[in-house]
Write a structure and sequence with these properties.
Layout (H helix, E strand, L loop, with lengths): L3 E4 L2 E4 L10 H5 L2 E9 L2 E2 L2 H14 L8 H14 L4 E9 L16 E8 L5 H6 L1 E7 L14 H12 L4 E5 L4 E5 L3 E5 L5 E3 L10 H12 L4 E3 L2 E2 L8 E6 L3 E8 L2 E2 L7 H13 L3 H8 L2
Helix pairs in contact: 7-8
The structure holds pyridoxal-5'-phosphate.
Length: 292
């Protein structure tokens, strides 16, 4: 199947060169993006993703290149031209193309890229049995709430983790606080049974999955606390998991050489994994979380 993307006003074959050499996204990482899950042609939690996109743009003094209605129509069309049962929709907006200079160019038109690819969810075994994660120093800037295309620290930390045989890496501040993972948010069930995750401030990306999982947890009567936690808390934590648009709810059973809880995905993780799969139209995946 030829994959079709929308680049700067045109539908093109995905691998066709279409972005200018002086696009500021390409030269500076001067852009923002969103990744949206698409199930059976329907983008999931799209309103929340578009709201976060608008916020990221506003925080960087960038403008939305189209009206929200046109953006939605383009997204629908790219999804229609790339029929996949389970996909991710990638939306990227850069400040535009201009001669290379640090100050923002005047009157430049933002570049919009919309593409779709097959979704790569964690394997059934990973969701059923959990994964191991590494720890990595959080070397990123102080505005991690902006979903910018500048992902070098995330790439470096993930690459190092993968080379060491880990599935993901948790970012750790110099005081031991766990902020988030390289492409996901982090949750613990603490020693008192409370579900804990870092507050959605400037030190983490406020994940859409994180927000949905918090709502599902509250609705299920699970006590929730949005507070920073440190690596040492793993000594008493009962469970841990990651959340993300493509990670879904992914149980974490080992952090470096420390086993989390009894080394198996716990009941809170498995319940939230099932509820999130159902929320996302992925009910067939829900059973994997039941196997523990
Ligand atoms: C650094 C980071 N944190 C958290 C997330 C999870 O966000 P979401 O649930 O919106 O996919 C992502 C997703 O890519 C991410 O890159």
């Amino acid at each position: 199947m030829t994959r079709i993307a929308y680049v700067d006003g045109r539908f093109v074959r995905l691998h066709e060169p279409a972005v200018a050499a002086e696009d500021r996204g390409f030269q500076f990482g001067d852009g923002v993006y969103e990744m949206v899950k698409v199930v059976d042609g329907i983008p999931r939690d799209l309103d929340r993703h578009l709201a976060r996109l608008a916020r990221s743009l506003a925080e960087l003094g960038m403008t939305m290149p189209t009206s929200p209605a046109v953006l939605r129509a383009v997204a629908r069309e790219v999804i229609r031209r790339n029929p996949l049962a389970r996909a991710t929709l990638y939306l990227q907006i850069t400040r535009g193309t201009a001669p290379r200079a640090h100050p923002f160019p005047a009157g430049v038109r933002p570049t919009l890229v919309v593409a779709v690819r097959r979704a790569l969810f964690p394997a059934a075994g990973e969701r059923a049995r959990g994964v191991a994660v590494a720890l990595a120093p959080d070397l990123r800037w102080q505005r991690r709430d902006i979903k910018s295309t500048n992902l070098l620290p995330n790439l470096l930390a993930r690459q190092r983790a993968v080379e060491r045989g880990f599935r993901e890496a948790w970012f750790v501040e110099s005081d031991g606080t766990v902020t988030e993972a390289t492409a996901a948010n982090v949750f613990l069930v603490d020693g008192t049974g409370r579900l804990v995750t870092h507050p959605a401030d400037r030190r983490i990306l406020g994940g859409i999955t994180r927000a949905v999982v918090l709502e599902l947890a509250r609705a299920a009567g699970i006590p929730v606390e949005e507070r920073p936690f440190r690596v040492e808390e793993l000594a008493t934590a009962r469970e841990a998991f990651l959340t993300g648009t493509t990670s879904l709810v992914l149980p974490v059973v080992r952090v470096e050489d420390r086993t989390v809880g009894d080394g198996r995905p716990g009941p809170v993780t498995r319940l939230l994994g099932r509820l999130y799969a159902e929320h996302s139209g992925l009910a067939d995946l829900a059973g994997d979380y039941a196997q523990g």
